[in-house]
């Protein structure tokens, strides 16, 4: 056993030759051997030690850099004495950008052999001095802080910064399980720490898109973001990207474990890698000016990129004009060890590369360089609460921190759709739309307002769905839509959580989602469903209207053709009866059930369902539907030969006083609010 780690410091035996005291003191300072206590190295530090050893750093130099003993270095290199030896093939995953920026250029510039060397110490710059070891300890990010950030933005008018209560939650074992809400308060400083929940399962077209938000702007649900933005533009032009070393020098980077795996599926086998070899200068420049500036640290894939002719700007620049789909498929086959998130980040970066093969760090990437901001961005509690607020209830590694959520929210909607299909293929289409809509609304809000505050416990949406909730909800709508329950469940519109989340969406976004996930749903039924969702209470309950109750009391009204009603309008519109009947608007009951709707809703419905109507006739019909008296009796003669037409439809509407109740030879339909 090597006792150098446990024996207190001492001086080497003095030389037999006498020396003067000053010279003796100087000699003792030069020859002193400090026996340091053994340190429990982190997985990152052990990977760094093996990386440095393989590139010619001596044991003693590595020990000086990490402030540990030589025997501790030896144990890390030999991968011994640990209860579970490291898988050395995964070491690249644990090398963060700051470490590589500090040591990779020097390795390439030196002529040292790549094998282990214990003879001489290469001249290695340690930047701000030798690390005490704590610089590699990601656990320091577990501290809870309230921060305000100032940063510069890339190609945008707004960046991101923040102040919020932070906390850490345990890593989830299963990345694809339904989420259950937790309202417990995280341990940390700040008035309101964060937590969350939601629900989802089934794929959709890769190019799905959401409709433009209406004039109401972003959902009021997302008006509570605290990520304050003040963005002086301090970035260099794209043609002169700062090197990663420069960026790191101005704002130290703290590597998080989540950055290494960046959404990789659990237990995923690492991609096969070629034997490490010295990098060519163009590889070093490419990794420094491009790869290390991406939104997710991909430096662990440098060997794979070189092996697939993607390791330098000269090889990547000709591919910038390729579509995202083509680049994604290329990377999926070339580097199967990449997670979907990593592939999408690299694709976006390749397409954004400038003519010099560089890419400036994005706003959020620079924000991550601030340790305090990074701690906030890595908050799982805030991420959970955000997902609860938008109605998303599935767990995935790629959405477990606010950094990943904000990063993905900056992508175009069709890219987010395709990413979700790849990352969580089992979630239903509605849940996918809920996630895309929530992410894009967040990004829009951050650009316009610059702040987002995670909701308090009292603001979290309910995630438990009461028994028979959906069937009760559908039966109470202005048209009974119980027959569609099974399909809506299959497509994911099945929970109280989702209904209460999407009720604040603009109507156009709800229609876009339903058109895509349920293209066969009749137009009128879709409008009825959208109206019901947006009109339900905060607790997700939709109360049957008094008019619907009155119609149900006179079931014949649902079957009575609206010929006489249409003929009585300012222009005789009875000629449209057959067209209206085809779209579920041909009876008195079907029209009367919509009479309480807003005029814009009715116009939107008729423009889409009955495009044959001229503008004038559409306005006349809307006015007629909305003008159905609230306290009147419509008496329709059962049979009067003088009114019979070739369709066998009889009668002219006769308006009687509300008190009239004579029904001799008549059918009476009451319309009462």
TrEMBL record:
Region span, Disordered: 1-21, 112-137, 152-280
Name assigned to this protein: Uncharacterized protein
InterPro entries: Sig_transdc_resp-reg_C-effctor, WH-like_DNA-bd_sf
SUPFAM superfamilies: C-terminal effector domain of the bipartite response regulators (SSF46894)
Gene Ontology terms describing biological process: regulation of DNA-templated transcription
Ranges of Polar residues composition bias in the record: 217-250
Biased composition (Low complexity): 127-137
GO-annotated molecular function: DNA binding
Gene source species: Schizophyllum commune (strain H4-8 / FGSC 9210)
